[in-house]
Amino acid sequence: MRGKVGMWCLIIAESAIFSIFVVAYLYYAGKSPSGPTPAQVLDVPYFASICLFSSSLTILLAEKALHRGNIKQFGLFWFLTLALGVIFLLATGIEWYRLIYHDGLTISTNLFGTTFYSLVGLHAFHVTVGAIGLTIILLCTLFGAVKQEHSARISVFAMYWHFVDAIWVVVLSVVYFITR
Amino acid sequence: MADAQPILPALVISPERESSRPLVQVLHDWMVTVDHKRLGLMYFSYGIVFLVIGGVEASIMRAQLAVANNHLVSPEVFNRLFTMHGTTMIFFAAMPIVFGFANYLVPLMIGARDMAFPRLNAWGFWMSALGGIILYFSFIGGFGLYGAGSAPDVGWFAYAPLTSPAFSVGHSTDYWIVGILVSGFGSIATALNVMTTILCLRCPGMKLSRMPLFVWMNSVMAALVLVAIGPLTAAQLMLLIDRYLGGHFFDTQAGGSAVIWMHFFWIFGHPEVYILVLPAFAIVSEVIPVFSRKPIFGYSIMVAATVSIGFISLGVWAHHLFTIGMTSYANAFFVASTAAIAVPTGIKIFNWVGTMWGGKIIYQVAMLFCVAFLCQFLIAGLTGIMLSAAPFDWQLGNSYFVVAHFHYVILGGIVMAVFAGTYYWYPKVIGKMMNETLGKWHFWLFVIGFHLTFDFMHIPGLLGMPRRIYTYEASRGWEIWNVIISVGVIFQAIGVLLWVANVIWSYYKGEIAGNDPWDAWTLEWHTTSPPPDYNYAEIPVIRSRRPLWDLKHPEDPDWKYE
Hints:
CATH architecture of chain B: Up-down Bundle
CATH topology of chain A: Four Helix Bundle (Hemerythrin (Met), subunit A)
Order of helices and strands of chain A: HHHHHH
CATH class of chain A: Mainly Alpha
Oligomer: heterodimer
Number of helices of chain B: 16
Number of strands of chain B: 0
Helix content of chain B: 55-70%
Low-confidence stretches of chain A: none
Radius of gyration of chain B: 24 Å
Structural class of chain A: mainly alpha
Structural class of chain B: mainly alpha
CATH architecture of chain A: Up-down Bundle
Helix content of chain A: over 70%
Distance between the termini of chain A: 42 Å
CATH superfamily of chain A: Cytochrome c oxidase, subunit III, four-helix bundle
Order of helices and strands of chain B: HHHHHHHHHHHHHHHH
Mean pLDDT of chain A: 95
Number of domains of chain B: 1
């Protein structure tokens, strides 16, 4: 109970940080005096987004499995969640590699670069933190430390992961649909 | 229930006290503690240290401004002084002090044994402490270790483009950014903790509608910290990106905007005022009823006013930007919202006066400070309404009138309430009474000094003296006012010293207080003074807003009427 309330508070505080970055992105959209522009270089990351959104489903299934006491199933779905998160991060990495080395867009190139890398990077940082947490819990599961009675705590962590996914809905629509 | 079995305050066997143990071990205990009472005290003492440092900085500035054409400090040093004074007082004096009160008192008042997350609580404190140390390290570290002191000199709101690498060479601004960033993480952790404690750990019978107003107001404070610190953190991250990675957020040559920094800063900055003043309201709302011998007047209206202040405070920030030149629609909106926040605040003042009305008022030092608070906060609010009118603000923005206004809020309101709170809760925390005579000297000296300084500070503002100038010409008609302002500082400084002396003297020589020296009504007065590590041997069960009244007056308990 108190874990959930605490996590909600953290989510509110994090949302405040994200909302300022989103406002900055929207405010500066189209104001770069020089290129490249979003329309020239950005492609919608459909595959990565589907992976990240699916991971919300797999973590939910993992929670349910642990609640029932099925540790093996929990471990399997937990691993899938982690894998999907890592795929998302890899896809982001590939996208950034292309942007930097092929399109010549870095954080200091223009306003678009500054706001794009900050907002997407802030989200990717949160995914990374989540992936580290997922890894730690996965290792604990492999060593047999995670039991049915931990399901409430695991759910608190899962709230964070759901939050990271929910933020991606906002970032994806703002960066790749509304302002492109 | 409650009337059938009286609550057991503390076990008879008390654990071995620390006086017999070696100093290293005692210090080690304080370093590693997760006890909310110790962390509360540490927050408070940490805040007091920085209050004194910030006060010394203010005194040097007043010495510099006391006479025209003065050259006591150089312009560069003066810039550093006002930057460090503002930053220190807001982030490292006021916030730790209000967090200290919340940390110490909220669990006691709701009948809990500790905060919801004790280790996170310790983490939050040490992050705040680290932030203050980082900021003050800039005195020696800003330009590297060679050269003279190099504290940040960009003002406490660090407007762009002053903070850009071109105008802010070296690392002094980075110390400002990182110090506040780090303490911001600590603040978020503490706010999260206070919120969760209030929502999850209330004792049986403590419905939201029975919580002491102190707890209500601190819950709104915590909510504001959660939503308001984030924007500052975000803006500071952007500034770091600009300074270190060549970003263009606030770089006007590349299409960035200096004005948006102002918006981001004040989206944090104005709720911050209420983050600080709501705990002050919280203290006053506990002291006034007890010293008027009446329950608080209009409890539910007070709660409603507190919550609406919380909401409205999120929508007033751009009244700091009237002089920047916004559209007339934006001006009108922020004029209206700023004036609107005076309504719930006014309701509170009426309710406090209503509580005193017809009461048997006991003018002890804690109550004296509350009365001073009421008068001064009223005046602060009135100048606030004056400044909320955009045309008036165009005339007086960035003048000493504004400086007088917000010092009236912070010193006349918040600091007075903090003084009241120390006199009121010191017997609980230490177990000894504070000295009344010394306290009255403290009160009168401080109040006289306060009014000398800040009443007369409005006048050079009206005469056109801008803030942040390091000296001025003799022919402006400002000299006499500046002399009076600076003289007031001496009285205030002596007052604060007497207060500190009183705290230390009473620790050794004060009268034994007993559990409930004020005949008060909230739960914290039920346990021993000082409270044991576990607060309550048995978790209390309550049935009304004044559980101790019920216990002391079983023939006429409150719960019959609520």
